[in-house]
Structure prediction request, 255 residues.
Amino acid sequence: MSAERADRAERDAGDDLPPNPIDAPGTRESDWRAWPGLGALSALAHDNWRSAVVVAAHPDDEVLGVGGLLSLLAASGVRLRLVAVTDGEASHPDIADAAALAARRVRETGAALEALGAGDVEIVRLGMPDTALAAREGELTQALKEASAGFQVCLAPWEADAHSDHEAAGRAAAAAGLRPYFYPIWAWHWARPGDGRLPWERASRIRLPPAVLARKREAIGCFTSQLEPRAAGLEAVLPPGIVAHFTREYEVLFR
Prediction:
């Protein structure tokens, strides 16, 4: 996840444009938990998966969206490949040394995968520019097609998540012919229970046993660059209210 919110809000100050849904006040996790629609989703059958490629627009996307599923698949011996599209160097626009931030986020990803029991995941780093994927979508489509060759399943950010990088990665995965399972991230913030903008008819969920959920929570905790306040007076990229959406006992995918 990238801090697209902060620099966009600054750029749009004084404009009459409606705010991006990411910038607006979000839905509380308690509201999602109280909605029976999530509990009614069908279970995703993944027992026959033998290989899966996971597309992440930024370091931490894969852990937030499908970290529990990754842990389950790794424990079952499924071959896993992570396609890290960017290194997340734009998550803190106020930091001068973007390269150092990118290196830190790469290390955080490694620690998080170890925490999930998925330390042997194959990693392909594309090194594309953070917050600028929409301009490189054709190139990204080809890269994903090549990186996913021979894999049975693709997991990718949802193509309508309201974050430009997430949407570009999702569209590219679809354009590459990968028929991805999409994982939402920002949608849990801007959508509401029962929201008609989300494709609930194509949704399924993965239950996370207590041990797997504990692994996921530990993995999320590895992303200290995103959990710490960005600077004096600025909240973390991942404040507690956002993190709460990803520590449920299940994960949700759209097909």
